Each structure stands twice: as C-alpha cells, then as structure tokens.
C-alpha cells in the first residue's frame, strides 16, 4: 500500500511524491537515466539560459534535447525577460520536454550580477510577468523554483509571499521552494516550517519542498509534519542513485534493503561512467565524472585513500583500474 497518492504536477501525475532536482553541472542525461533506473519517476535537466534556449538552433544540438527513453523529463530556464522566457519555454516543449520550470532561486554570484535567478525574488512583477508569458504558450505543466527570499529582511519575506500568492493566482502548476534565502546559499538548515506555512495558507496549491533531503527514512515524517505535497532530491542524489530505491521503499511501505556492498557500488559507478563516456570525449568524461567521486566514496570504508586514487585517474583505463583496486576487496565490506 502506498503512503501517499503521489504528486500532481498539473496534468502530470507521479506515483511517488519526489523527483530529482535540477543540479547545474550534474543532472545530465547520464545522471537522469541512472536516477530513473533506481526508481525516480521524473527528473529535471540542467538549468538552461533562456537566451540560449530561445534560439532554436541551440536546441537542435542533441545534448539539449531529451531522448525518447527518458520521459517524463523537465527543463528549467533562467532569465529575466518574459518574452525571451516564453520563446525559450515554447522551444523546449517543441524539443520534447514535458515540464517547464522557471528558476528564481539560483544564488550563483554571476547569475545574481545579471539580475537573474534568486535576484528576481526582489522583483515580483518580473517573476509574475515571466510566468504569465510562459503560461500563455505552454499547455503542459509549468513550475517555478523559488528560495524563501533574497535574505531575511522583512521586505524580502513580503516579496516572497507576494510571489507565492500571485503565481498561484496566475496558474503555476507547482512551486518548488528551497527553504533557504539566496544570501544563505547552502549554509545552515533549510526552513521547512516556512514551507509548511505556505502549504497551510494555500492548501489547494502543489507545494514541493527542497533542502537537506539525505535520509530516506526521515522523509515520511517530514511530509507528515509539514503537509507538503512532495520534495525534491538534490545533493543527496550525487553519487547516490540508491536514494531513489530507498525512498520508493519508504513510500511503498517496504523495508529499505541493506546498503549496496562494494561489488554493487563498483558496478553502478562503472555504469554511470559508461553512460557519460557515451556522451562526451574521454578526457571531458573523466573530468565530469570526477565531480561524482566524493558522493560515491561516501559509502566506502576507506573513503580518503579511495577518493585520492579515483581523483588521480585521468583516463578511462585509470578510472577502471582505481575502481578495481578499491572496490573488489570483499574483506572491506561492512
Ligand atoms: C551544485 C548545485 C547545483 C544546483 N543547480 C541548480 C539548478 O540548476 N537549478 C535549481 O533549481 N536548483 C539548483 N540547485 C539547488 C538544488 O536543486 C536544491 O534546491 C538545493 O541543493 C537544496 O537541496 P539539498 O539540500 O537537498 O541539496 C543546485 C544545487 C547544487 C548544490
């Protein structure tokens, strides 16, 4: 029996109330497909600049288009010009994305300097005009990703509530809210109480929480305590596709299986690496894959030397050798 009815994103219904968040530089096709294989019902692609996605030539490149085997999949756009956001959204739907998500959350300094992402939380009119422009051209689900304000000043909180209220009035299908301010970046703990307050003020809206989802067993209590409709998994999925298998078990009232032993970890790490190698030249693939090592070795009993060996690898053969060295000694299994 399911613990919940799943999650409604407008016309799209997921059978479990979680999915993989956008993570710039991580959530490429390889990571999305691995998440899917481990039970994630829906994934978000890397954030794209609206200005680029508004150009149909850019979207003709295979790496920007979803493949037939990964539906449903969402695209996220970043921009501050409503007309450009709408053009980008329309192109992305034509390219095959099932869901459009508007990013008003990114705290990266280079994004904020250009008045995009999280900076727009202090410009509610641009946020709502962007939503309206996108809503006019996209028939399918339109989501918005927010943080709880630019900072903790009363005016920022006021702007946050204004954006939440007006976006629901203007037909957003779901809000994904990261429970930190932009200026907090990733410091401290996410404020799920404020997210719960959003849900209790707007019980009919779909409110999805984000922040510090690392422990599958705790998520059920979190959902019960906050009344939220769902949550996204972000850093907790980097080098850890098993989190989706375990979350599914929690939601389907099945026991969480034992953690993967080193042999299984090795196979999954190799599977991930092989998927990346299909999409990029070897040197770039190794560089991309390096970002995942810290996540994968978190389960290794000799984390530090294993990580050091993997980080030193510069070629496909060296990655495989490092994996064979550090992931085949069964005496290391817990
Ligand atoms: C490296 C990195 C890249 C991220 N990129 C995006 C992004 O492109 N779009 C987005 O909406 N959120 C992005 N996020 C935020 C996450 O989706 C998520 O909201 C945040 O990490 C909080 O969740 P967590 O504590 O479970 O990681 C990023 C986070 C990290 C750490």
Task: Describe the protein's architecture and organization.
The structure is a single chain. The protein has 334 residues and is of the alpha/beta class. The protein has two domains: 7-251, TIM Barrel, CATH 3.20.20.70; 262-332. The protein has 14 helices and ten strands. It has helices at 29-37, 50-53, 56-60, 82-95, 109-113, 124-137, 154-169, 192-201, 216-226, 242-251, 262-279, 282-297, 303-312, 316-326; strands spanning 7-9, 12-14, 18-20, 43-49, 73-78, 99-104, 142-147, 174-178, 207-210, 230-233. The longest helix has 18 residues, at 262-279.
Q: What value does the average pLDDT take?
A: 96
Helix share, percent: 40-55%
In sequence order, what are the helices and strands, one letter per element?
EEEHEHHEHEHHEHEHEHEHHHHH
- The chain-level structural class is alpha/beta
| Gyration radius, rounded | 20 Å
Beta-strand proportion: 5-15%
User: What is the end-to-end distance?
Assistant: 32 Å
């Amino acid at each position: 029996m399911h613990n919940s009815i799943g999650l409604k994103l407008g016309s799209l219904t997921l059978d479990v109330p979680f999915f993989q968040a956008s993570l710039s530089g991580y959530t490429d096709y390889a990571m999305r497909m691995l998440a899917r294989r481990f039970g994630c019902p829906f994934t978000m692609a890397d954030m794209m600049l609206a200005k680029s996605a508004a150009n149909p030539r850019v979207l003709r490149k295979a790496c920007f288009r979803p493949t037939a085997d990964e539906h449903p999949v969402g695209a996220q756009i970043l921009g501050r010009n409503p007309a450009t956001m709408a053009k980008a959204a329309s192109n992305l739907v034509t390219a095959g994305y099932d869901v459009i998500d508007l990013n008003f959350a990114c705290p990266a300094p280079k994004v904020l300097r250009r008045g995009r992402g999280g900076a727009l939380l202090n410009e509610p009119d641009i946020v709502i005009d962007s939503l309206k422009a996108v809503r006019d051209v996209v028939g399918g689900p339109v989501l918005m990703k927010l943080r709880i304000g630019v900072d903790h000043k009363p005016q920022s909180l006021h702007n946050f509530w204004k954006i939440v209220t007006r976006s629901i009035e203007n037909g957003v299908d779901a809000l994904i809210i990261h429970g930190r301010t932009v200026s907090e970046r990733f410091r401290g703990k996410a404020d799920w109480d404020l997210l719960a307050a959003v849900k209790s003020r707007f019980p009919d809206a779909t409110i999805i929480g984000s922040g510090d989802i690392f422990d599958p067993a705790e998520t059920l209590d979190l959902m019960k305590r906050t009344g939220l409709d769902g949550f996204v998994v972000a850093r907790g999925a980097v080098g850890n596709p098993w989190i989706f298998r375990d979350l599914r078990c929690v939601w389907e009232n099945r026991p969480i299986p034992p953690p993967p032993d080193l042999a299984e970890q090795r196979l999954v790490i190799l599977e991930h690496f092989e998927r990346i190698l299909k999409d990029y030249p070897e040197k770039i693939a190794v560089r991309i894959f390096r970002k995942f090592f810290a996540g994968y070795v978190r389960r290794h009993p000799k984390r530090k030397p294993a990580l050091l060996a993997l980080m030193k690898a510069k070629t496909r053969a060296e990655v495989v050798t490092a994996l064979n060295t550090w992931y085949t000694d069964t005496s290391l299994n817990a």
